[in-house]
Amino acid sequence: MITIVNALTPVLSLILLGFVIRRSEFISPSFWPSAERLTYFLLMPAALIHSLAGKNIGSLPWFGILVSVEGVVAASALLVVVWGAANRGMGGGVFTSLFQGSVRFNTFVALALAESLFGRDGLFLAALGAGFMIVLINVLCVSAFSLTVGSGGGVDLRRLGTDLLHNPLIIGCVLGIGLNASGWQLPAALDGTLALAGKAAFPVGLMAVGAAYRAGNLALHWQPLAVSCGIQFLCKPVLAWSLTTATGLTGAAAGAVLLLFSVPTSPASYILSRQMGGDHDSMASIITAQTCLSFVTLPVTVWMLL
Q1: Domains of the chain, each with CATH number or no CATH
Q2: pLDDT at 258 over 70
């Protein structure tokens, strides 16, 4: 239990700090939109390039991990689309919050738990699985925005293609994977710069979530919140267990995959929602609620792993 508390407390603390700073007006309200743009266009892409460029999968069970994580992401996205089709009264902005809240995952919490439970091997296996998912998740989420927000109900393939090609998160993923595939090592100075910039993305993003949070939003957005929590904390762990069993993954590899799909959604969801015209109020509520709820759900997952 202490491992989970240690991993989740910094997340909630930074959200709370952003909430307090915004309400106290210690910093001008005009700071937050600029901080969000900085995170979205610079800090997060730097983190993605750094994390994806230097991994060497070697003799690890990478194929089983790849099939498992991509399968769970695709199935989760399909569940949200089916639910959205059955509830057409939901606005496009709220749908994107539900989508991100059901598909994304908190990398920081997952990696922290993997290292605490399985050591350095678990950390590397979880990072490998996260790397496999990053491109697919960002393509799916950007596509959800392009097809539902400001599309007038139609499918604008030109807008979708433009959004995918110009999205800084996808560009960061492609650059990182391209560097990895080429075998070219980033110069130490450049890699260190990217690593340092990437470390700033997480705290700034979390404080931006807190700054946007409104206490009444949890009740206002109860429906997408409930559905996203059901998919995030029930459907995804069950799917992950099924696929790891089917692909023959065991030990730390299976545990790392299960952890990736047992954590709350990513704070990056809020930044993407703000920048692409989503319903950022509902997104902030989902992030906050899932992070709090994970204090209850994660001990169950860890108990099952051990």
Answers
A1: 2-305 (1.20.1530.20)
A2: yes
